[in-house]
Amino acid sequence: MSKHKKRSWAEPYKIKMVEPVKMTTREERQKAIEEAGFNTFLLRSEEVYIDLLTDSGTSAMSDRQWAGMMMGDEAYAGSRNFYHLEDAVRKYYGYKHIVPTHQGRAAEHIISQLMIKEGDFIPGNMYFTTTKLHQELAGGTFVDVIIDEAHDPESEHPFKADIDLNKLEELIKEKGADRIPYVSIATTVNMAGGQPISLSNLKEVRKLTEKYDIPIVHDMTRVAENAYFIKDREPGYADKSIPEIVKEICSLTDAATMSSKKDALVNIGGFLAVNDEELFDKARNMVVIYEGLHTYGGMAGRDMEALAIGISESVDYDHIRARVGQVIYLGEKLIQMGVPVVKPIGSHGVFLDAKKILPHLSQDQLPAQSLASAIYLDSGVRSMERGVVSAGRNPETGEHNYPKLELVRLTIPRRVYTQAHMDVVAESVEAVYENAKDIKGLKFVYEPEYLRFFQSRFEVL
Ligand SMILES: *Cc1c(COP(=O)(O)O)cnc(C)c1O
């Protein structure tokens, strides 16, 4: 064996407790997916073998975090754990003030209601479902100003979440800076396939928005994963630590919403972070109406403690390298098998290109939804649609929004599955791909008004 052979890495932890998962037969899965109306969100988790529905709230906590749970101070006001959380946010992210919330969308609700006026426009690096909906409910219109490469699953651009500065400046000139309450920046961009934004681009965005006096609101749900890609790919950052990069990203923005169910390694929680004193006062007042007192905001004391510890673990280099490394392992395996996926592989999941896998289905026949059902049926692996069903309808015309990307997301929970699980997933997707021409489309039989992908039901065409 060569001395120079690249050495393998392994997870920087060992397993102390296990949770058995159920193996099912094809007949059982057929029954389960029919009962779920061919929507993987409506399956019972007991019917799932490997659950790649989402990386949200599905992380395994460390022994330190579990120990922190026992140190919960469940006082109604001024819990010790809140101050630990506030310290962690200041230390690792650098924002001045935090308002805890039960999860990310609650923080989005507060910031949208406080900053957006009827008729405003909110530019951003591609939409996220709940973020965009809260902007719309506050009277605003989301405008996508991400670079074109983000919409091209073939493009190997290393920073597909970068903002197109021309698109952004044109929008500011067309609508007027006073109609743009803030620019919305996500690290990483979920809907583009978990793709990162570069620090050089974020600095340019900062320069441009300062010229027009427009603040930046940061959706920091996966900021540590974004920082890992910057360290790995962006010139000048190889020797910077993950905490240094995370802090630099946050320093270029004015406020942040966080779903700590992702990067921050807890099962529930979130917060709004702001630097502006006046905005902080308003947010702290508003959280009392919707979430709870400003020192718990919908979280138990023990949950805030686990989150404070999770934040520090999330920026550990060995952790984040193994986390993103596992996602890339699955992605490269699928690429070797010839399965069309979004490239480069993102930070939190592998996104299958359903338009390419099922070329015989039109977008109206819901190819990504159909593919997710087929994968479940093959192996009990649960994935999620990210295509026309997730994109919803245009609120004015009532027509489907037709996104360019029609994807199925295999999302990897943090610290939960092994490399052997990834092998089983890859083999199942390969088997489905080989018989893809037999997969039939779906049609809606029930469709709720908001965020329809969660609860819609379908029938095979
Ligand atoms: C999950 C998520 C949210 C919403 O957070 P919740 O905790 O699910 O309410 C917002 N933005 C992004 C990018 C997300 O992935």
TrEMBL record:
CDD domains linked to this entry = Tnase_like
The entry lists its GO molecular-function terms as: tyrosine phenol-lyase activity
Q: Which InterPro entries match?
A: ArAA_b-elim_lyase/Thr_aldolase (IPR001597), Beta-eliminating_lyase (IPR011166), PyrdxlP-dep_Trfase (IPR015424), PyrdxlP-dep_Trfase_major (IPR015421), PyrdxlP-dep_Trfase_small (IPR015422), Tyr_phenol_ly (IPR013441)
Q: What is its EC number?
A: 4.1.99.2
Q: Which residues carry this modification: N6-(pyridoxal phosphate)lysine?
A: 262
Q: Which reaction does it catalyse?
A: L-tyrosine + H2O = phenol + pyruvate + NH4(+)
What cofactors does this protein use? pyridoxal 5'-phosphate
Q: Which UniProt keywords apply?
A: Lyase, Pyridoxal phosphate
Q: Name one GO biological process term.
A: tyrosine metabolic process
Query: Per the database record, which ranges form the Aromatic amino acid beta-eliminating lyase/threonine aldolase domain?
Result: 51-427
Q: What PANTHER family does the annotation carry?
A: BETA-ELIMINATING LYASE-LIKE PROTEIN-RELATED, TRYPTOPHANASE
Subunit text: Homotetramer.
NCBIfam families the UniProt entry points to: PRK13238.1, tyr_phenol_ly
Family of the protein in this entry: Belongs to the beta-eliminating lyase family.
**What's the protein name?**
Tyrosine phenol-lyase
- Species of the source: Rhodohalobacter barkolensis
Q: Which gene encodes it?
A: tpl
